[in-house]
Every structure is written in C-alpha cells, then in structure tokens.
Write a structure and sequence with these properties.
Helix 3 packs antiparallel against helix 4. The chain has a two-stranded antiparallel ribbon. The protein contains eight helices and two strands; from the N terminus they run H-H-H-H-H-E-E-H-H-H. The protein has 227 residues and is mainly α.
C-alpha cells in the first residue's frame, strides 16, 4: 500500500521529468515507503513486550532513508538535467515529501494503538518531529524565505510569501506529539493488561515529560517561531 501511494505521488510530482530521474526517484520512494508501512503495521499491532521489534524496524527504515537518498542523489548530481532538486518536480523534494508522509503515518499509528507506554510515545514523537523537519525542508527548499522558487518567480498569497503560510500550515503536525504528564496511570494499566513486567525501552525516542492537553500547542508555536 505504501509503495503504491509513493508511486502515485512520484508520478504526479515528476511526471514531466526524464525517465531516468523518474525511475530512480520512484524506486527510492517505493522502497522507503515499504519499510515505513511495515514499521507502521508492526507499531500498531505488536504488544508492548515485543515493541523492540518495532524499534529495530525503525532503524532499518532510517538506514534505507539515508542509503537510498545517497543512491538516488549521486547519479542525478552528475547527470545533465535542468531539474532543480527542490524545485517543482525535483527529486529531493519528492523524496522528502514521501518520507515525511511515511513518518507522520507512523506517528498516527503509534498514537492510536490500543496500548501505549513511554517507548511507543517516544518513538511516535521522534517520528512526528522528523515528519515536521522534512516538511519544512521541502517548503523552504522550494520557496525559500521570500517565496522565490527555482525559476525566480515569487509565490505569494495575499501578499504573504508561500513559505510563511506553509510554515503555519505545517505547524499542526506537531499537535500529534504526546507527553508523559497524566500518562503514568494509563501506562500501568496497559502493562498489567498485557502481562508485561518490564516495558521495552526504544532507543529511537523523544520523551516530553511536561506536555499535556493544556499546553499541547506549545511545541507547534515554538517551532513556528524558530522557523
């Protein structure tokens, strides 16, 4: 499923580009999406005592992201092409966009899984931040700060650069972050219900202890201000 979605996005984004560029980018996106889909499925269905397997799969996913990014970018760097990496239909913008969607899918899968603990929330938070960073890279790589794209055309909406508007539109991604405040009781209930005496600790983790429903918008507001 993930490979099919990534293929559709790549075709829509790079349909006007050459066959070689399209083929390399599509293969890279499909492979990374495949690993992302597997990680999402495992992250949602595996019990807490087996969550280490999700962490291992996430590491493989990250390795595939780096490897196929290099494998795709290296040939296209030396091939004569008018395509800008972050421009309309650019290979890097397309690759990052697909990876951002896959990372956010993992965040949602972990956020809505039946049982959760600090490990699931930590991995979900790390994936959420990665999705936001990739989205911002695509946005500012395409439009820059002033809305000037690779063709030196300025894109604005009501006089506001597209990149600034995009920054505010991307901020809700961080609303998916989860904190540990108020979660301890639910975590204990989850561990008892699954019969786990010692929850696994994910090495890919971002723990936010003070985040709660009352200050959920704080990360999004802080990230928007920093960007």
């Amino acid at each position: 499923f993930g490979s099919g979605v990534s293929w559709f996005i790549t075709i829509q984004s790079m349909g006007q580009e050459g066959f070689f560029e399209l083929l390399l980018t599509a293969l890279a996106c499909m492979v990374v999406s495949f690993f992302g889909t597997v990680t999402c499925v495992l992250g949602y269905f595996l019990e807490l005592e087996n969550f280490d397997e999700v962490d291992q799969m996430a590491k493989i996913w990250i390795g595939a992201f780096v490897l196929f990014g290099v494998v795709t970018g290296a040939p296209l760097t030396f091939v004569s092409t008018s395509m800008h990496a972050f421009g309309a239909g650019g290979w890097l913008a397309t690759y990052f966009a697909v990876c951002a969607l896959a990372a956010f899918s993992l965040t949602m899968a972990l956020k809505f899984r039946p049982t959760k603990n600090q490990s699931t929330r930590g991995l979900g938070n790390a994936s959420c931040v990665a999705s936001y960073v990739l989205a911002i890279l695509v946005l500012y790589g395409r439009y820059g700060v002033s809305g000037l794209d690779d063709t030196f055309a300025v894109t604005t909406l009501f006089g506001i650069p597209a990149s600034i508007i995009g920054t505010f539109l991307a901020a809700p991604i961080l609303l998916a972050l989860e904190g540990e405040s108020g979660s301890d009781r639910r975590s204990r209930v989850s561990r008892i219900s699954t019969g786990s005496t010692r929850p696994p600790s994910a090495t890919i983790s971002l723990t936010i202890k003070k985040l709660s429903d009352s200050n959920r918008v704080a990360p999004a507001a802080a990230a928007t201000y920093m960007v």
